[in-house]
TrEMBL record:
Keyword Ribonucleoprotein carried by entry: no
Keywords: Membrane, Transmembrane, Transmembrane helix
Lineage: Eukaryota, Viridiplantae, Streptophyta, Embryophyta, Tracheophyta
Pfam family, one: AA_permease_C
Highest taxon of the lineage: Eukaryota
Domain Cationic amino acid transporter C-terminal span(s) in chain numbering: 284-329
Record PANTHER family: CATIONIC AMINO ACID TRANSPORTER, INNER MEMBRANE TRANSPORTER YGJI-RELATED
Entry protein name: Amino acid permease
Length: 335
């Protein structure tokens, strides 16, 4: 078989099945397991950071960002799927006493905490071991072995296994276990991470566009003229963002930036100065609209330009299949 689809991994299948059974048959037990596992995970993270910094070697940062900004953005795009799951907080809206206050705090607070932890872990790893000798398959475990703390790699491995298990427990859907197991059994992790990152970045772009539409358009309130302006400016923002992304993928120069960036400012400024807001948030809303959503569109599309062509082909095929299933479902419902 194709090398990308011949990584037979029975352990992944067994893990999925066991976790699905736990989630289906005992909600209370799975919830308790998740709480205990989270506490354990926090201790493991603290252990990695503290012990890692104790054994830090600042000389490992002598060649900081050796692959330049292109390498940074390429890695960020591939690993962007790490930032999904925060939306799960929004599903708890009906369980909170004051969702207008608690949900934004939960979303933004968890995002800030996790981002800080990610940065600390990445910094610790690169201080422990030179980037040239990092093992991409088990970076932290091998890093501890390299500093003579071989026993610590088992703690790290346990924490990693626990982390993956709890993520699966939160996101597993029993009806999808068979399909997920087939994919997990055969497919290279790199293929899956690229696909998931494209999906995540695309969804974030759509969410940012949705914020602009929700703030500046309301049926029966927005005039036809303002509606046309909004569409033109949003298209200008998306088009200029795509231009910057493509140019960055093809060149390290600045001419393309000088051409495309002004169009982004024109599109965003056009909405800000020429399109009146149709809605205002009653309790809490995204600040700095339209600048922040527009910047989100530009950044996410920019990161999309760092992902390889084959991943887009796979994404297109899967998206086409899912759209066919979706429209088939809708047709069945209406008939």
């Amino acid at each position: 078989m194709n090398p990308n689809y011949s990584h037979l991994d029975p352990i992944a299948v067994v893990a999925l099945v066991v976790i699905a059974i736990l989630a289906v048959f005992s909600t209370k037990a799975s919830s308790m397991f998740n709480k205990i596992a989270t506490i354990v995970h926090l201790f493991v993270i603290a252990f990695i950071i503290i012990v890692g910094l104790i054994n830090a070697n600042p000389e490992n940062y002598a060649s900081f960002a050796p692959f330049g900004t292109r390498g940074v953005f390429k890695a960020s795009a591939v690993l962007f799927f790490a930032y999904i799951g925060f939306d799960a907080v929004s599903t708890m809206a009906e369980e909170t006493k004051n969702p207008g206050r608690d949900i934004p705090i939960g979303l933004v607070g968890s995002m800030v905490i996790i981002t800080i932890i990610y940065c600390l872990l990445a910094s610790t790893l690169c201080l422990m071991q030179n980037y040239k000798t990092i093992d991409i398959n088990a970076p932290f475990s091998v890093a501890f072995s390299s500093i003579g703390w071989g026993w610590a790699k088992y703690i790290v491995a346990f924490g990693a296994l626990k982390g993956m298990t709890t993520v699966l427990l939160v996101n597993v859907v029993a009806a999808m276990v068979i399909a997920t197991s087939v994919v997990a059994f055969f497919t290279n992790l790199r293929i899956l991470s690229n696909l998931l990152s494209i999906s995540t970045l695309s969804i974030f772009v759509l969410v940012a566009i949705g914020i602009l539409v929700r703030r500046y358009y309301s049926s029966g309130v927005t005039t036809k003229e303002n509606q046309v302006k909004l569409i033109v400016f949003v298209v200008l923002i998306i088009g200029s963002s795509c231009g910057m992304s493509v140019y960055r993928a093809m060149s390290d120069g600045w001419i393309g930036w000088a051409i495309t960036a002004p169009f982004w400012f024109i599109g965003t400024g056009g909405i800000f100065f020429m399109v009146p807001k149709a809605k205002k948030p009653k309790v809490w809303g995204v600040p700095l609209v339209p600048w922040l959503p527009s910047l989100s569109i530009a950044i996410n599309i920019f990161l999309l330009g760092s992902i390889d062509k084959d991943s887009y082909i796979r994404f297109g095929i899967w998206t086409g299949i899912l759209l066919i299933l979706l429209f088939s479902y809708w047709t069945t419902c209406f008939l």
